[in-house]
């Protein structure tokens, strides 16, 4: 069989014809005649007969092709080009995000050498890196599809959604979907005021089985720091997105955008029931096994490393970096902080003398309005025992069964 190339008059010889048995990225299976040809520049060239048979419409503006006689689908052949993986930020002693530890120049240089041994941990740009250690599976109580109508969006929110979708497509976070599931998109502000793209998975979560391993209370985890005097905090880049979804779970995360397009997550999204447990197990049972509570604590996408001396701390950092590299995880350079002599974390201030509540949190309770109703007393005192030593002695009467006829007597002096 002779084939004439589209460019020029060159003719190539094809000696055989077979059948291509393939599946699209959207999961649609098809079979069609195919001619193997050596040295093609592309993986496959779609022939005119197949395009006609599939009633194909090529949309060059959006970089996609619409195909399918019975089940119509859209396949993107051109995405916003992901930036190639950028190298780690230039490392020198002046660029290390140091904490408040009083380290000498020699100690800083030793820390720099430890960081330079693992440049892959701080690579930026391109597709989101995912670990091969674990995949997240959504376990449903029943198979009834979840379909929640879209919310109403302002023109500004529509613009934000479109921008975020393009970015997530470029990073391989999402892909086009033809799922029977659909959850609505919500835009919520971050702490710094910037918009955050989220999907409201509450209805899906209602249909999802509970996980057996709840997260540990952070104040309990911080007790294991003992008399440590050197602390570093590491932030895992993109958090949950570093965990891939099980293939059968991806369609369950589908969402619809204001323009009517549908997408589904390829990685574990935020707001999904079971996602915190999966990530916590990954860090504790796989990535940092053997290091947890010895010199490392993992709480979701944060890692705390604690040591007694700078020399010991550098060794501990190397051990953690090795594990992160082995499991293909990435760190957010801008949110890491190295070599502090105190740890300010989730309302706690940890130093070599122990774990202390932050002044602002103590003041919030101390200056709170005195409860006027009996039912409000237990809730008012709930946090106090952890913040004020001996507080249980003072609030003990509030733990008795509520008697609305009883006058509650509390001695402020203990």
Automatic annotation (TrEMBL):
Name of protein: Reverse transcriptase (RNA-dependent DNA polymerase)
Q: Which PROSITE patterns did the record assign?
A: RT_POL
- Matching CDD domains: RT_LTR
Gene Ontology molecular function, alphabetical: RNA-directed DNA polymerase activity
Q: Which Pfam families match?
A: RVT_1
Cited InterPro entries:
DNA/RNA_pol_sf (IPR043502), Peptidase_aspartic_dom_sf (IPR021109), Rev_trsase/Diguanyl_cyclase (IPR043128), RNA-dir_DNA_polymerase (IPR053134), RT_dom (IPR000477)
- Does the record's keyword annotation contain Transferase? yes
Query: Which keywords annotate this record?
Result: Nucleotidyltransferase, RNA-directed DNA polymerase, Transferase
Q: What are the Reverse transcriptase domain coordinates in residue numbering?
A: 169-350
**Keyword Transmembrane helix recorded:** no
């Amino acid at each position: 069989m002779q084939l004439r190339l589209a460019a020029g008059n060159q003719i190539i010889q094809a000696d055989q014809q077979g059948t291509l048995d393939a599946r699209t990225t959207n999961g649609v299976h098809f079979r069609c005649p195919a001619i193997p040809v050596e040295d093609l520049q592309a993986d496959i060239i779609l022939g005119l007969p197949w395009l006609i048979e599939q009633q194909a419409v090529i949309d060059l503006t959006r970089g996609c092709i619409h195909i399918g006689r019975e089940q119509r689908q859209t396949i993107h052949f051109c995405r916003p080009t992901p930036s190639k993986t950028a190298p780690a930020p230039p490392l020198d002693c002046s660029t290390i995000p140091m904490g408040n530890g009083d380290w000498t120049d020699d100690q800083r240089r030793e820390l720099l050498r430890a960081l330079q041994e693992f440049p892959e941990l701080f690579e930026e740009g391109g597709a989101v890196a995912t670990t091969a250690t674990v995949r997240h599976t959504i376990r449903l109580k029943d198979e009834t599809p979840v379909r929640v109508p879209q919310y109403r969006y302002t023109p500004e929110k529509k613009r934000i959604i479109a921008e975020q979708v393009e970015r997530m497509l470029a990073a391989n976070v999402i892909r086009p979907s033809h799922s029977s599931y659909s959850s609505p998109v919500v835009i919520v502000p971050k702490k710094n005021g910037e918009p955050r793209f989220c999907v409201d998975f509450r209805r899906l979560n209602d249909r999802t089985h509970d996980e057996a391993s709840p997260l540990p209370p952070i104040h309990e985890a911080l007790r294991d720091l003992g008399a440590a005097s050197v602390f570093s905090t590491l932030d895992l880049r993109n958090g949950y997105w570093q965990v891939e979804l099980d293939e059968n779970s991806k369609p369950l995360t589908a969402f619809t955008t204001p323009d009517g397009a549908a997408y589904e997550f390829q990685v574990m999204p935020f707001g999904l029931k079971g996602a915190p447990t999966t990530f916590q197990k990954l860090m504790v049972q796989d990535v940092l096994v053997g290091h947890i509570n010895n010199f490392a604590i993992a709480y979701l996408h944060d890692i705390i490393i604690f040591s007694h001396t700078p020399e010991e701390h550098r060794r501990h950092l190397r051990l953690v970096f090795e594990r992160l590299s082995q499991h293909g995880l990435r760190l957010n350079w801008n949110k890491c902080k190295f070599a502090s002599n105190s740890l300010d974390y989730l309302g706690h201030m940890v130093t070599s003398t122990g774990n202390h509540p932050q002044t602002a949190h103590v003041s919030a309770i101390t200056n709170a309005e005195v409860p006027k109703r009996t039912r409000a007393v237990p809730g008012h005192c709930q946090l106090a025992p952890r913040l004020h030593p001996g507080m249980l002695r003072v609030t003990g009467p509030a733990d008795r069964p509520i008697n609305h006829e009883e006058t509650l007597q509390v001695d402020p002096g203990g």
